[in-house]
């Protein structure tokens, strides 16, 4: 692994990831297989071990699975949605991120199903994306009181250009009282205001 990206633990878990991760939504939508291979190999060469994908990213998971043959142990795969590990050519997911809460399913039922997958060795750790502050607190309380696996990360929208959470996220997301680290993802970043006098 390269030296330009150091590893850090995600919260108090044993999951060690690079400070910078590689989002791969373009692998299945804009880049062909060889372009995807070049990007992924460059990331690995620079010490990036966190690979973020989802089954909604077109061919992304299949391409990652093909490119990583023989290098699976070098990466941490984070994915979302209804993932089929066969697309990734792996036996396990390092970080499964629940993409959004399901209002029709109690959080205890969701966490119980995910807890089973962790204990079966199919998933190492759990995370969530697009939860509100109260949903994060509810999931944490439920996991603790029912002795279920807890979320170790939250992937929330963040606008790098303005260095602040996207406004709609700001209204619903609060700093985590549970110590759950936040993993920002690429939102449509609002345009900066026009210069004064323009």
Automatic annotation (TrEMBL):
SUPFAM superfamilies: NAD(P)-linked oxidoreductase. Residues 169-198 are annotated as: Disordered. The keyword Glycosyltransferase does not apply. It holds the Pfam family Aldo_ket_red. The keyword Oxidoreductase applies. It comes from the Bacteria. Keywords: Oxidoreductase. Residues 187-198 have a biased composition (Pro residues). Residues 20-161 form the NADP-dependent oxidoreductase domain. This is Aryl-alcohol dehydrogenase-like predicted oxidoreductase.
